[in-house]
Amino acid sequence: AQQVPDILSPEFAADPYPAYRVMRESAPLIWHEATQSYIVSRYEDVERVFKDKAGQFTTDNYDWQLEPVHGKTILQLSGREHAVRRALVAPAFRGADLQDKFLPVIERNSRELIDAFRHTGSADLVTDYATRFPVNVIADMLGLDKADHDRFHRWYTAVIAFLGNLSGDPEVTAAGERTRAEFAAYMLPIIRERRENLGDDLLSTLCAAEVDGVRMSDEDIKAFCSLLLAAGGETTDKAIASIFVNLLMHPEQLAAVRADRSLIPRAFAETLRYTPPVQMIMRQSATEVELSGGTVPAGATVTCLIGAANRDGDRYRDPDRFDLFRDDLTTTTAFSAAADHLAFALGRHFCVGALLAKAEVEIGVSQLLDAMPDLRLAEGYDPVEQGVFTRGPQSVPVRFTPAGA
Ligand code: HEM
């Protein structure tokens, strides 16, 4: 049998995709000592764990993965409690709220960032754009002070490091826990004040939301906002950097998108399939479960490799090729992420922000293409991705004719 590379090894961090293939083909269920979890990699297994039709999985693992940095979030809730919380928060991320209130916020924040470099002729789309844009959007949606965006950015970086700390570095853990205290000290007074002066922003919507007589406490709202920083910032940040690398490395597909912007949702769906920002998600087994390759006992942690499942040859033809025109994506010009890939998970915890993320990518990509008609990668660029838990391009240096030149 082929040697299966360790998910904590440097080779895996450099390029996990060959390892994913070995796992899918010859070791679809692995006991992993260091993370004390069973690793699954095939599309059918990851899909089954996420959908959880038989009620065999919980998200109790988030009690140690998320609680120390965020407090109790929607991801830790289950059953009716989760359904009510979902009903409280979800409307803010779709429909009229998204369309009327937040699209202008997205447009404004993207434009501000682009205006800062469009006259220069060069930029790094990671540091100058992607790592800033989604976090700024969330802070602005919540109605927080622009002057605090840098602070948000710092907290969000510490939270991401905590979540990706698979090897348990104590300094990273301590920094994550400090962030929780700092964020609470910042956010709780703002929430109390906002309850007294409701406005048109997301924070006011969360304060006022009521379903079946249930409302969120200050602590619930603070934990949700904290989760948004990571769940909505980090992920969309990596998706935007990746969609640019994928398109710039495939100039004919970039040209197609440039000519027809209604292809952006397809390019986004294919990017999420091919280079998913969240590469792995854990669950806890509530009962014994039969999966490809063996049995997982009750009470075990299961690591679902989204990055591996999304390249499963039993699900996608020619899975290692980036092709926004592939016919096994159902997305045409509309958006049906749930059917296309596992990057937003599936089932109860399916990403609440999927439509918001799509709006950010559509607007961001379109604005960048408009501002830079001859956008190209810097000469000699060699794409390097980093991250094991979440993953994305380290940098995307680009060149273009400066605006007004
Ligand atoms: C849930 C990925 C953007 C908010 C999830 C989950 C994944 C995911 C994989 C499921 C986690 C699990 O089941 O354990 C992504 C990706 C994004 C993205 C790849 C961008 C491309 C966003 C945005 C927001 C957001 C923009 C909001 C601002 C959430 C929330 C949940 C969630 C609140 C928890 C839902 C629940 O527990 O019911 N996301 N996300 N995400 N996401 Fe996203």
Automatic annotation (TrEMBL):
InterPro entries: Cyt_P450 (IPR001128), Cyt_P450_B (IPR002397), Cyt_P450_sf (IPR036396)
GO MF: oxidoreductase activity
Keywords: Oxidoreductase
SUPFAM superfamilies in the cross-refs: Cytochrome P450
Pfam families: p450
Domain of life: Bacteria
Recorded family membership: Belongs to the cytochrome P450 family.
The protein's name in its UniProt record: Pulcherriminic acid synthase
